[in-house]
Design brief:
This protein has three helices and no strands. Helices cover 91% and strands 0% of the residues.
Length: 198
């Protein structure tokens, strides 16, 4: 088909050259015919050998591109699945954290209440121990003071009276009487001071 068109074109060119005068830009008829023959041969070789190789390379590239697209779609689907799984795990973790926080708040209140009760019990125990210790020290100080005051009173009384108060019973009576008088005078002055303030 191409060959027939080339031959027809060559005849029309040859007919045109016979009737017209020669154009210096147009080559000779035999040059045109041989050029067309060579172009036809090159076209046949190109179509038979080179075009299938180009087609094979293009098909291979098309397959590679399609394979890459499919691989990308698979990777995107896997990424979407992993993201959904991650979001689910994150939601589960948040739910668990909220549950633990609530449990800690509830247990924390119970623990705080228990700690307050323990602290109150411990404080009461410590206060009671301190009061007992203060009472024991007060009694010890009272006994020590009584003994010191008794010794001083006996010594003073023996100097005033001029006789010795070596007898234990006598010494004890004198000390007890002196302390009773001292407490009575202290009680009377304490009772009179609030009355004076009013």
């Amino acid at each position: 088909m191409i060959t027939a068109q080339l031959v027809a074109a060559a005849h029309s060119v040859a007919a045109a050259t016979d009737t017209e005068e020669l154009n210096p830009l147009l080559p000779e008829t035999y040059d045109i015919v041989w050029s067309l023959v060579i172009v036809v041969i090159i076209a046949i070789v190109f179509i038979k050998y080179a075009l299938p190789k180009f087609q094979a390379i293009l098909d291979e590239r098309t397959e590679l591109i399609e394979g890459g697209l499919q691989h990308a779609e698979v990777a995107q689907a896997e990424a979407a699945a992993l993201r959904a799984e991650y979001e689910q795990q994150l939601a589960d973790a948040r739910t668990e954290a909220a549950r633990i926080k609530e449990a800690a708040r509830t247990e924390g209140g119970v623990i705080v209440t228990e700690l307050k009760a323990k602290a109150a019990t411990e404080a009461a125990r410590t206060l009671e121990t301190a009061q007992r210790q203060i009472e024991a020290e007060r009694q010890q100080a009272s006994v020590s003071l009584r003994a010191d005051v008794g010794a001083l009173a006996t010594e003073l009384a023996s100097k005033i009276v001029g006789e010795s108060l070596e007898d234990e019973a006598r010494q004890s009576r004198v000390v007890d009487r002196f302390l009773a008088d001292l407490e009575a005078s202290a009680g009377a002055s304490a009772a009179s001071s609030p009355a004076k303030e009013n």
